[in-house]
Amino acid sequence: MRKAEKNQDRSGEPDQANRAGKPAAAKMRRVEYEAALARLQAELVRLQYWIRDSGERIVVVFEGRDAAGKGGAIKRLTERVSPRTFRVVALPAPSERERSQIYLQRFIQHFPAAGEITIFDRSWYNRAGVEHVMGFCTQEEYERFLRSCPAWERDIIGSGIRMIKYWFDISKEEQTRRFTARINDPRKIWKLSPMDLKSHRHWYDYSRARDAMFAATHTPASPWHIVEADDKRRARLNCIAHFLDAVPYKKVEFNKVKLPKRQGAGGYKEPDYAKMVIKRVY
Cα 50–53–55 angle (5° rounding)? Predict the structure, then answer.
């Protein structure tokens, strides 16, 4: 096997050094990743039972660089649990009516009731990021948001809602690699939006916006948690592990389930549906 191939996993992702200058860890093998993910997802099921029983309300915010892997992490966080408990909210651009509302109004209506987790795939922090950088809001609206957001979040948390905020961070080189992969792969081209292309161009404008956002909204009551995401597999596992540690849930042991015997046919005969079966292509 060629040396270049040894440094890649099956997803084709090369080893990366993190931004602290430390050498990157060896790529996690797929079998190791899937085993760790299965263990964490089993714990998420236990967490789900506890949330339903306790009436806990949790808001999880996913923000970060474009192409940093937020969507992949959310998918692994939610794919083995009930969408009635783990609700994912990914709001489109605001309508004309929503633009006339108080800015935070359209987000609050999606907040959880008792026994629910709401996961925001992008959130009210759009105002501190893309809206500010791309000029979709005024400077006054931007500054008002940074001033008011910490107090608003403190009130939300004071009402009994637990809030956890994640920022997915990647290097310039890794973002370029992922965008290039989207351009060259017809299965991924749908992920590449005009805003993605602009975010690649405006890397340092987004860096400044992120820094200002952290300075204003990283508070003791509602801190930010940075997920280093150059390595997608480790980022997903680290994020889920942190989420489980951040919620003081009580582990629920699963009851042993016994499958009941199937009822007798009682004279039922299966009709012949052969003409209705689709063609076997594979």
Answer: 100
Mean pLDDT per 10-residue segment, the chain (282 residues): 39 45 77 98 96 97 96 98 97 92 95 98 97 96 98 97 98 95 91 87 97 98 98 98 97 87 94 95 96
CA distances in angstroms from 55 to 46, 48, 58, 161, listed in the order given: 14, 10, 10, 10
Q: Please state the pTM of the whole predicted model.
A: 0.87
The CA distance from 40 to 233, in Å, is 13
Q: Are 50 and 114 a contacting pair, CB within 8 Å?
A: no
What are the sequence ranges of the domains in the chain?
A: 26-247
Whole-angstrom Cα distance, residue 152 to residue 131?
Answer: 19
* 3-state SS, residue 167: strand
CB neighbour class for 110 (10 Å; exposed up to 12, middle 13-18, buried from 19): middle
Report the C-alpha gap between 106 and 97 in whole angstroms. Answer: 10
In CATH, which of 3.20.20.80, 3.10.310.10, 3.40.50.1820, 3.40.50.300 is domain 26-247? 3.40.50.300
Q: What is residue 17's predicted lDDT score, i.e. its pLDDT?
A: 46
CA angle 114/115/116 to nearest 5° reads 95
